[in-house]
Structure formats: C-alpha cells, structure tokens
Amino acid sequence: MAKVSATEKNKRRREMTARDAGKRAALKAIIKDRETPIEERFRATLKLAEMPRNGSKTRIRNRCEVTGRPRAYYRKLKMSRIALRELGSLGKVPGLLKSSW
C-alpha cells in the first residue's frame, strides 16, 4: 500500500487541475496566437507562471485504485499489475483467467 499522503496529494492535484483547466487553456490560447500583440502574450505568460504548479495536468501521477501503487499501472483497468494478479486469482476481474501449467 502506498502512503496515504501520496494518494491524497495526487487527489488534490486532480481537483486543482479540473478547477483551473479552463483558465489555463485560455491563457495558453493567447500565448500561442501569433495575431495578438507581444506585450499581451507576455502578460499571459506571466499569469500562467503565477498559477500553482499542481494545477498542471502533467503533475498528475497515475496510481492504482486498489493499492495506490504508482508503477506498473494498467490504464484500462486503473490498477497495478500486482493488484490485477491478486484480484484475477480470486476471480474478481471479469474475463481474466490466470494461467497455470
């Protein structure tokens, strides 16, 4: 199991990203638009830099829903390989058969 603080921090980052997504997108659109004056684009860049870093989507870490493990994460199932194997052995993942020979 991952530390509770790590999973909570990731949850806060997800919430902050969802909250600030519109504002970030608007500022990035101003920055990328070559038709706007350079001063306005520079002001938009400074505003974007002032926003909290944890509001950026790249700061979110994919974590297992069961254990909180950050590595060996299957996006489709939202869990790690270890949790998948364990739940698959118990027959709790539909359509998954653990092979043995």
From TrEMBL:
Q: Give the keywords, sorted.
A: Ribonucleoprotein, Ribosomal protein, RNA-binding, rRNA-binding
Q: Which residues form a coiled coil?
A: none
Q: Which domain of life is it from?
A: Bacteria
Q: Which GO terms describe its biological process?
A: translation
Q: List the record's Gene Ontology CC terms alphabetically.
A: cytoplasm; small ribosomal subunit
Please give the InterPro entries that the UniProt record associates with this protein.
Answer: Ribosomal_uS14, Ribosomal_uS14_bac/plastid, Ribosomal_uS14_CS
Alphabetical list of SUPFAM superfamilies matching this protein: Glucocorticoid receptor-like (DNA-binding domain) (SSF57716)
Asked if S-adenosyl-L-methionine is a keyword of the record, the answer is: no
Q: Name one GO molecular function term.
A: structural constituent of ribosome
Record region (Disordered): 1-24
Q: Which PROSITE patterns match?
A: RIBOSOMAL_S14
How would you summarize the oligomeric state and partners of this protein? Answer: Part of the 30S ribosomal subunit. Contacts proteins S3 and S10.
To which protein family does this belong? Belongs to the universal ribosomal protein uS14 family.
Task: Describe its function.
Answer: Binds 16S rRNA, required for the assembly of 30S particles and may also be responsible for determining the conformation of the 16S rRNA at the A site.
Q: What is the name listed in the Swiss-Prot or TrEMBL entry for this protein?
A: Small ribosomal subunit protein uS14
What is the source species? Answer: Pseudohoeflea suaedae
